[in-house]
Amino acid sequence: MSVPRGLLSSWLHTRTMQEKLDFALVHIDRALFPLAYILRLPSRQRISEALDLCITCWLRTRERQCPKAEQLETAFSLLSGNDTFLYAGTGSGKTLSAILHAYLEKNHGITLMIAPMKRIQASHSIDFWKTFTQSRVHDIGKKKPGNVEIIVATPEQLFRSVDGHYSRFGNLMRGSIESTV
Fold first, then answer.
1. Which residue ranges traverse the bilayer (predicted)?
2. Residue ranges per domain, the chain?
3. In a 3-state reduction of DSSP, which class is residue 169?
């Protein structure tokens, strides 16, 4: 099924929980869909949110990914407005965990992802660009506008260099923090 990207949130909002579940069971690969976990969630609201996340992720990734239970837990924490720290091994799905809430196009603050290497940062940025379309991506180097809810940075971009200078991003973050204090 094709739901126009701009209409996905409103499409989900107008569906009952049973309609969402039926859609998920028909369209999402059963091997990837965490049905048992979703059905054990403590409230109808949480089940509905999990279905929204699974359906949105499935459609946005062109039917390649559906969040696992652990990824949904992280997304629930972020959707609840909690500061969340996720520490997990390579290939465990940290990136998807961190951006699931952004799939729903709800403004729940900023997600700051620290990538240990510039190559990983570039890879994440390309993936986000493909997923969220160019209008939601901001390239600080090219000064392209966009809606920024996810920031991918390397540790070096956040702190002073050995010479005592901040990167352009470090200065931007420092200025943002100082203006809110």
1. none
2. 1-81, 110-181
3. helix
Q: What is the per-residue burial (b if ≥16 Cβ within 10 Å, else e) of 64-76?
A: ebbbbebbbbbbb
Residue closest to 53 by CA, chosen among 114, 90, 106, 130: 106
Write out the chain's pLDDT in tens, 181 residues: 556 556 787 888 899 999 999 999 999 999 999 999 999 999 999 999 999 999 988 988 888 889 999 999 988 988 888 888 878 777 788 778 777 777 665 655 677 777 776 666 666 666 665 655 544 555 555 555 555 567 777 777 777 777 777 777 777 766 655 554 4
Quick one: CA dihedral 155, 156, 162, 168, positive or negative?
negative
The predicted model scores a pTM of: 0.70
Q: What are phi and psi of 112, to 5 degrees?
A: -105, 115
Q: How far apart are CA 40 and CA 33, in angstroms?
A: 14
Burial code (b: 16+ CB inside 10 Å, e: under 16) for 1-13 equals eeeeeeebbebbe
